[in-house]
Amino acid sequence: MSKFMVNLTAINPVDRKRRTPPIEVMVDTGSEVSWLPKKALIDIGITSEGKKRFIMANKDVIERDIGYAILTAEGYTTNDEIVFAEDSDMSLLGVRTIEGFSVMVDNIGHRFVATASIVA
């Protein structure tokens, strides 16, 4: 496995003129959902829809606010759940966003490869 970064933009689904600047995130196929800085999400009017618990790689259990945003990176777009990352958290692009983009991750070429969505 390799690590690579992409620029991810969150767009407010209610007011699409409100969007974050591109934020460098690590493509993380081990993370279920994507994480962006809390301040960036609040600044564009994304509101918390509740909290979720997460088990970290070191087995710590943490709780974070979650909301919903349109996410775009590398020319791909999807609507997805997003985690309000605290200052101590990493910014991540998770597997659900990757699946929403209908792409596979090419870890050798450090890029996304378009695929068809799986129905069944």
Q: What does it look like?
A:
The protein has one domain (5-114): Acid Proteases (Cathepsin D, subunit A, domain 1). The mean pLDDT is 94. The strands form 2 sheets. Strands 1, 2, 3, 4, 5, 6 and 7 form a 7-stranded mixed β-sheet that branches. The protein has a two-stranded antiparallel sheet with strand order 8-9. Strand 5 (61-73) and strand 6 form a beta hairpin. It is built from 2 helices and 9 strands, in the order E-E-E-H-E-E-E-E-H-E-E. It has helices at 38-43, 95-100, and strands spanning 5-11, 23-27, 34-37, 50-55, 61-73, 76-85, 92-93, 103-106, 111-114. It starts with a strand and ends in a 6-residue tail after the last strand. The longest helix is centred in the middle third of the chain and has 6 residues, at 38-43. The protein has 120 residues and is mostly beta strands. It is globular and about 35 Å long.
Mean pLDDT across the residues is: 94
Q: Please give the share of residues in helix.
A: 10-25%
How much strand content do the residues show?
A: over 45%
Based on Cα principal axes, name the global outline: globular
* Count of the separate structural domains: 1
As residue ranges, the low-confidence spans are: none
Structural class designation: mainly beta
Oligomer: single chain
Biggest sheet statistics: 7 strands, mixed
CATH level 1 name: Mainly Beta
Order of helices and strands: EEEHEEEEHEE
- CATH level-3 fold name: Cathepsin D, subunit A, domain 1
Count of β-strands: 9
Tell me the span between the first and last alpha carbons: 27 Å
